[in-house]
Amino acid sequence: MAVKKITTWLWFDNQAEEAANYYASVFRNAQMGEVVRAPAGGEPYTKEGQALTAEVEIEGQTFMCLNGGPHPDATPNDSVSFQVLCKDQAEVDEYWSKLSADGGREVQCGWVKDRYGFSWQIVPEALPRLMFGPDREAAKRVTEAMMKMVKIDVVALEAAANG
Predict the structure, then answer these.
(1) What are phi and psi of 24, to 5 degrees?
(2) How far apart are CA 156 and CA 123, in angstroms?
(3) What is d(CA 132, CA 71) in angstroms, rounded to the nearest whole number?
(4) 3-state secondary structure of 55
(5) From CA 71, how far away is CA 126, in angstroms rounded?
(6) How would residue 141 be classed by pLDDT, with cut points 50, 70 and 90?
């Protein structure tokens, strides 16, 4: 495992390796890294041979999945989310369907929770371009349209921008 200046750690009761494999399957540019296994008589929430940590790299960002056991303060919530910037509607649709499947759930304004409860913002490149462009009236219409959406619809955003 290459040590990086900043690494994102995700806490799981006991699904770290499963989650790392899941994320590696969801994202196009992702790969599994090292899996560190528990020794005999190891951590209280892992059995011998079970993953203690499982590393996955997504788009160059390292995520370490940790089997930390149940902990009341380790439940994912919306105070931390991960943004996926997508080039077009097809990419939005792809990540949306993968992350919302098998126990994930759609939220609002382009947010989706995956099966483990982590929040992802699936954002087409058009959204920041239209929201932060020089035409402030168009930006207002785009923002109002986006606030009514669950999954972001690029065609609807562009229609809103055009009035």
Answers:
(1) -65, -30
(2) 14
(3) 40
(4) strand
(5) 39
(6) very high
Render pLDDT for 18-67 as a digit per residue (tens, 0 to 9).
999 999 999 999 999 999 998 887 666 678 899 999 999 999 999 999 99
d(CA 53, CA 146): 37
Alpha-carbon distance of 89 to 91, in angstroms, equals 5
CA 86 from centre of chain: 13
State the Cα torsion 62-151-132-138 to the nearest 10°: 170
Q: In angstroms, rounded to a whole number, what is the distance separating the alpha carbons of residues 86 and 72? A: 34
10 Å Cβ neighbour count for 61? 14
Mean pLDDT across the stretch 92-96?
98
pLDDT at 95: 98
What pLDDT shows up at residue 88? 98
Q: What size, in residues, is the chain?
A: 163
Neighbours of 85 (CB within 10 A): 14
pLDDT at residue 1 above 60?
Answer: no
Q: Tell me how far apart the alpha carbons of residues 56 and 25 are, in angstroms, rounded to a whole number.
A: 10
Q: What is each CA distance from 146 to 90, 117, 125, 127, 149, in whole angstroms?
A: 18, 23, 13, 8, 5
